[in-house]
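@channel sequence for tomorrow's demo:
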Amino acid sequence: MIGHISDTHLGAFIGRDEELREVGEDVHASFLEAIEVFVREHVDVVIHSGDILDEPRPYGDALRVLLEGAKRLKEGGIPLLFTLGEHDISSIPSTPHPYVAKFAGLAEYVGSGEVHEVKGLKVIGLHKHKLVEAEALREKLEEIGRRIRGLDGKKVLVLHQGIREAFGPGSELSISEVPHGFDYYAMGHIHKHYEVRLGKGLLAYPGPSHWVEADDPDECGVLLVDLSGDEPEAQWVKLESVRPKVRVSVKAQELEEVLRRLAEAEHRKRPVLWMEVEGDADQMMIRRRLEGRYLIRRLSVKPDSGRAAELRHERELSVEDRLRELALEQIKDEGVVDFVLGDLLKLLSSGSEEEAEQALWEFWRKRYGITWGEGA
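structure tokens (generated this afternoon):
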């Protein structure tokens, strides 16, 4: 029996403001709840298929919760295996933070393409490859397909990638490029529960253990995967610690009725609210009526003139976010913008010019696959 978890994004919402910290605590609680589900169900192995952390340089809270969960599994005699997603990997060459669990003897990294045998289970995986690295990813998967042909017993492939047929053209792989011969494909990266048969095996995404964006599913969970039979069977388990969220789009003439319903709705804890109003409306009035019952993440009013006015959460009004929006308008490349305004800007601001130069070169090398001297 495998416990499959993915996209936990530990540390999300932490370090922004006190209200959002409530949501960050729910992100952590959902992860620890998942660990308790695995212990209660007596799984043999837990597999985390990437995006363990929300960002590669997290606040200490995220690492504390990761180690707490890994220690709980260790005490239950349950090995924790993991690969890395893009949120775990820094553009600056360094040891990824999730490795602290490995170094503490609480987890095993399986994203190097090598076969790991755990309780008789053969597990092999790769870390996240970006779209520009798709060709290298396909070559590695072909090699993995050849390598497993002579292996006996149950086999699991762990990937943090999108599948084009299921999730569209932005995905790195077609399902035909995923090697056959595995009993279970423990997938991550896509924030949606999804399952499809692949030969005699099962390819599955559990989805996130807690949402991090408005478009993520309202309900989040993990998978319990039974490999004891001829074909794998998976059971999706909903996590109860997930913070409720509400998305509302309303015309101004219907606003009063919608506000009344929102104010009267009962929730076990304050939901996070995204709200769009089409037509003339008083933003401050809306906030006064709802902020005691909701965490207002974004409030957007589009007057009849067509000019949108927004009252966002404080974080969304930040200079950093506005700078990112402007940069994306000009560069139209999220990878470059996130690197420059993230890792590179932090290093330059701290006066670490040599480290910044090294990070810039490493980013360029990985992104475009060149070596020093080419194109000079």
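heads up for whoever presents: The longest strand covers residues 295-302.
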